[in-house]
Amino acid sequence: MKNFFSIIGGMGTEATESYIHVLNKRTPAHSDQDYLNYILVNHATIPDRTDYILDNSKPNPLVPLMDDIKQQSSLKPNFFVIPCNTAHYFYSKLQSITDIPILHMPKEAVKEIGRVYPKAKKVGLIATRGTIYDGIYDNEISNFNYELVKPTKHIEDETMDLIYKYIKEKNIVNAELYHHILDEMINEMKCDVVILGCTELSLAQERASDHNYPLVDAQSVLVDRTIDMALHNEQK
């Protein structure tokens, strides 16, 4: 197969399925042959990223992630996509073991703010506790001269419940809780826009988009950049 990319997924599987669904839906296709060529690695047994970031004695996700990158690199994809925000904690180490470019999900999400919300100054972030703790969005937001607004402990706990207790454990999106979190970030924390920095939150947005809160969905942006890059490679 020529002109294909590799997706390192399974973190979690429902979130990866959401990414694939949106990717295929947005691809400008009018026949089977118009869809994009890609290999999906749904590595569901990769250890939890947040658990490791908060406690380095827990199983290290970097080891299987590196194995996936090495295995897929031998097939020579045009580029890699990792539809998991928290996994980008390991981005530099993963990119260092391959010459094949890896799309940087947080960087692309922050770049999108200027295009969609050019007047935004205060940027809120909701994500897993691992992503909040490891600061993978902090430098990107600072580089674009935005003021980063992180959730309070209360909002952080609510977000973790939404992600883990509802979506990961039960495959249920608690729309009321999701909308409540967005309302807190916009109206209480005074954010101009909120980044959905977790693919489970992107899944929540896919299933409960009946709101008007200003946000940038990192997974949605990643889908668009994936399509852009894939079509560009096809034209070479």
Automatic annotation (TrEMBL):
Keyword flag Magnesium: no
Keywords tagged on the record: Isomerase
EC number: 5.1.1.-
Catalytic class of the enzyme: isomerase
UniProt GO MF annotations: amino-acid racemase activity
UniProt xrefs under PANTHER family: ASPARTATE-GLUTAMATE RACEMASE FAMILY, GLUTAMATE RACEMASE
Family: Belongs to the aspartate/glutamate racemases family.
Name of the protein described by the UniProt record: Amino acid racemase
